[in-house]
Every structure is written in structure tokens, then in C-alpha cells.
Design goal:
The chain has 5 helices and 6 strands. The protein is an alpha+beta fold.
């Protein structure tokens, strides 16, 4: 009984942390809803298992097998798109505020930041030493802004092997 109570407490604690992160991203999306075209796509575990099942037909393709293995450890993917054909939809200050909120309030760490021809990709992580955990990718282009929110149990070693697999081809 004691272990059940501890497990239930841990589950509720992790669920509240994920919902706080989702709330932060939802508020950001809703803030820009009046100024731009906003879409949300969410894929849960079942959808991702179906994608892995479809990849099983490509048995001879090593890349497909690597992706299928990685998909087993992704619990949920949410993609928020904010686009405006008339120009910039999200200011750099708003993106900096979102990033700061995720780092300060939700304890995310910056993994990577890449700039190329005016585009900016920032990847933040909330996990432990050997597991990727929850990942938020902020992707800024000239007239589009995309937020990708991954909830995973991927290990860094699995990601490294996936990168090596794709690099070898």
C-alpha cells in the first residue's frame, strides 16, 4: 500500500509539471491567436505506435528501423504553428519571454541554438542526466513561428546512435 501511494504521488507530481508546461505554451499560443493564423496538432502514443507499425513494412531499411525504435520512446508530440503571410507574427521579445519562462518557471535547460539566414531554432530540455525527457523546440522563420513539444523517455545514447545511423548513410 505504501508503494502504491508513493507511485501515485510521483505520477500526480509529473502530471502537474507537464500541465504547467502545456499551460505556458497554450497561453503563448492564445496571445497570438488574434494577430495570426494559429494551428495545433497533437499526436499521442497510439498515433505514434501506428506510425511505427507503418515503418515496420520497410524491414530492409535501417533508417526506418532506427526511427521506429525511437518512436517507441516518444509519448506525445504537440506542434503549435503561428503564421502570418503579411509579415512577422511573433516578436523576438515575445520569444525571449517564452524561453525565459520555460527556463525560470519550468526548469528547462537550453540544449542548442542554431541560426541560419534569419531563421532561429532553439531547443530546450527538461530531463535528467541520461534521459531527454520533455523537449520544447522554438523555430522562428520570417513569417512563421513553430513550437514543437515532445514528451519522451529517449535516452541520450539512443539519440546518439540514431544520429550515427543517419550520418552513415
Amino acid at each position: 500500500m505504501k508503494s502504491f501511494i508513493i507511485a501515485a504521488g510521483c505520477f500526480l507530481l509529473s502530471a502537474s509539471a507537464v500541465s504547467a508546461q502545456d499551460k505556458c505554451l497554450r497561453e503563448f499560443r492564445n496571445k497570438h491567436r488574434a494577430n495570426a493564423e494559429v494551428h495545433t496538432v497533437s499526436l499521442g502514443g497510439f498515433s505514434l505506435k501506428m506510425a511505427g507499425w507503418c515503418l515496420s513494412f520497410a524491414d530492409d531499411d535501417a533508417d526506418a528501423q532506427s526511427v521506429k525504435h525511437a518512436l517507441k520512446n516518444v509519448r506525445r508530440v504537440k506542434v503549435y504553428t503561428i503564421s502570418n503571410v503579411n509579415g512577422t507574427t511573433v516578436s523576438g521579445d515575445d520569444i525571449a519571454d517564452l524561453k525565459s519562462n520555460l527556463q525560470r518557471n519550468e526548469n528547462f535547460d537550453m540544449l542548442m541554438e542554431v541560426r541560419d539566414k534569419g531563421n532561429l531554432v532553439q531547443i530546450l530540455n527538461k530531463g535528467n542526466e541520461d534521459e531527454l525527457g520533455n523537449v520544447v523546440m522554438l523555430i522562428q522563420e520570417e513569417s512563421d513561428f513553430v513550437i514543437v513539444n515532445l514528451q519522451t523517455t529517449l535516452k541520450f545514447s539512443e539519440i546518439n546512435s540514431l544520429i550515427r545511423q543517419f550520418a552513415s548513410n
